[in-house]
Amino acid sequence: MIIWKSPFTAAKVFRVSTESQGVVETVHVPVMPDEVVHWMTEHAPRVMVDGTYGGGGHSSLLIKKLPPGEGFMIGLDRDPAVSERVDTESHDPRLTVFLGSYERIPKALEALEIPKADAILLDVGLSSDQLADANRGFSFTVDGPLDLRFDPEFGDPASDWLAWKKEDEIANAIYQYGEERCSRRIAKEIVTRRRKENPVKTVNDLVEICRRCVPPSKNHNIHPATRTFQALRIVVNDELGIMERTLKAAPEWLAPAGRLVVISFHSLEDRIVKNAFRDDERWNILTKKPLRPTDDEVRMNPRSRSAKMRVAELA
Ligand SMILES: C[S@@+](CC[C@H](N)C(=O)[O-])C[C@H]1O[C@@H](n2cnc3c(N)ncnc32)[C@H](O)[C@@H]1O
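That is the input. Now the predicted structure with S-adenosylmethionine docked in place:
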């Protein structure tokens, strides 16, 4: 397995087990596994790309569907922590994982001298491994630095972004990407703290502000910081921009009848996928409505509850 450092300039070589016996065990449970395997492999692909490798859960299921000893399973992830979950002893030589954004899929194919992929999977958002890591700032129930970057070696942490953006820009981002109605009050408090030379630096700093500004939700099951953290994560990682650019370019990366499977977790992302498939005549949409996890899956893996899967193939 190769992990290629973003942006694919320096190469590092690791080996990985596809059974996740790595140095650090993954705690992530792959979402809609049966549906992913069905839609990714129904047309007997030989080259599959998992653009959001994470804990390798989907990849390890998909690689089993390649013809014995043949084909390619290519993973990409922006998070360097993925390399901590590698097993240096055993690996399936058909698996190669690159460190970098899924926007770089053509570079990964080029590095392996493969012209096109037969199937691409994007399971966007956060993994449970990232949520469990207090140093990343993804979980508002664990205090730590307010970072929120998928790749902590690239770009600015969320605390820096909040330290230099104008109040209006902060409010607009929280409203637009978090659909948070109290965005103006939250932005005002962030900037007031900054003026008092006590800027927001940690998860708890921001959680406290959200608690003061956001009234409890009617059914009390949404944490007051949920929407604000989602918005900042989307902003610091340019998540929607990357997704839009990728969906537009993906038909060029796929072989005839190649498939794109996208799992998203909130309405902004799902809308982008729906519109990208609908507005590009190169796609033949295979799922008229988004597929949802079964009740049983949601019971076993509550994090799957907001997943929506859409599938298209090259027309
Ligand atoms: C929901 S997890 C994927 C879990 C994976 N399917 C599994 O079964 O273990 C999402 C992953 O996507 C990664 N990610 C987010 N944006 C990315 C991007 N633009 N390019 C590559 N990976 C990205 C995150 O770092 C995270 O590891």
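Residues 28, 30, 51-52, 54-58, 76-79, 101-102, 123, 125-127, 150, 242 surround S-adenosylmethionine (CB under 6 Å).
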